Amino acid sequence: MTPTEPKQAATVLLLRDGTPGLEVYLLRRTRGMPFAGGMTAYPGGGVDARDGDTEIGWAGPPPEQWAEAFGCDERTARELVCAAVRETFEEAGVLLAGRAEGAGVGGVLPSVSGDDWEEQRLGLLSRELSLSELLADRGLVLRSDLLRPFAHWITPPVEPRRYDTKFFAAALPVGQEARDVSGEADEATWLSPAAALAELHAGTRPMMPPTTHTLGQLEPFPDVAAALAGSPPEPLHPISPTFEETPDGRWAVLPDGTRIRMVVALPS
């Protein structure tokens, strides 16, 4: 059979400095979801066609720089960065955008609490509103300088649902709080990478191989500053695992030989 063409997608490792050190925001997808139901993941999702709108206000590394980082064309890069910002607002209530006059490193980001913001978040979610329309209405520009390229995974050809997913890392902006607003998750929590992986190994927090692997990449960093400074070098190499069945379970095998045990979602 001809493999399904993977859809472009973006996901964001939203980071903060907590009491135990570096923490990452995690969502547990509802068990009824057609893809990765019951699995723990980061905020993210597929690209919307309007994410490529060229009139969107923009501050930070331009689309051509992101295209070089992810090995794609400029239009796709623009869509991916916009999708990362849009999905983070849709699924966590965190908006990586700033006032046009305060754009750039150190610029103040707005508070996004209040009923009017929630109405616009829901408009994005229903696709009645595009990201460019929201930003223009608020006099904001997208802050690509708040994002870092982190990883690039492609669902193996044997899977019926395939995604070409770019992973970004970003610090939780000062004055904003991640909120459990995603209709696709039944739990949202901040955990240290080590704690999340410990729950995975205990069998209480199933997750897909990309989540397992990127948590392992985060684990050595003591804080957000170190994680953002230590993001993988550009350009990133896409990872598309193969699968291996053994007497002790099913494994995802990465191109470098790393083996990640496949964990099924817990029963309802």
Automatic annotation (TrEMBL):
Q: Which domain of life is it from?
A: Bacteria
Per UniProt, residues of the Nudix hydrolase domain are 6-213
Show the PROSITE patterns listed in the entry: NUDIX (PS51462)
Keywords of this protein's UniProt record, alphabetized?
A: Hydrolase, Magnesium, Manganese, Metal-binding
Q: Give cofactor(s), names only.
A: Mn(2+); Mg(2+)
Q: Which GO terms describe its molecular function?
A: hydrolase activity, acting on acid anhydrides, in phosphorus-containing anhydrides; metal ion binding
Please identify the protein, giving its name as recorded.
Answer: Nudix hydrolase domain-containing protein
Q: What is the lineage of its organism?
A: Bacteria, Bacillati, Actinomycetota, Actinomycetes, Geodermatophilales
